[in-house]
Amino acid sequence: MRRMKFTPPTNDYNEEIKNIDEQICELIDRRKKVSDNNPGFPKMEYICNWAEKYNIYEDLLSSIFSMLYHENEYIPIVEPEEFRKNISILRSVEKDNKILSVTSMQQYNNASIINISIEWNSEGEEDYLNMHPEIYISEKYICRMDSGSGGDGHKYHRFIVTPALPDDVSGIKLIYKEKNLETNKESNILIEL
User: Fold this and answer.
1) pLDDT of 10-51, one tens digit each?
2) What are the structural domains, with CATH classification, of the chain?
3) Among candidates 136, 89, 85, 88, which has minimal Cα distance to 109?
């Protein structure tokens, strides 16, 4: 999914708070280092106490910590450039009554696009509608969903992978992750390309 360009809500800025804002940035960096970039999410009890102690709205604090928790969603987006070729992959695996298929890949000079299809029995579809998909290959690659569609027992997703994968993806292990946004329950499907 392409990110909309950020436009500041105003051009006005009180320069007297510049040092405070820089300290906020420094504290965010320190928080990442102390937690080894895995902070989790503060208990709501803590957020309630901090909101009262520092005169900040609870919802604002929850939003700030939610954004920090989902920091990876703010990694600068690389758009694929200079299409090179299509590569057929056609690998499938079945798990939890779902068939996951990695169908093909488009190769660009700076990125790859992986196309994934998921089929399932559409009974109980409500459970599947709240799922957030991701893929993971290795720490070397950044993977983000570009687009998706589906309905009635079928979903299709396109993921942009940077840097570009090799043309021969034989032996590469891809993990398809789904997280239920209501229950936070996760499931992983491993597929070897």
Assistant:
1) 999 999 999 999 999 999 999 999 998 888 899 999 999 999
2) 17-74 (no CATH), 83-192 (2.60.40.1640)
3) 85
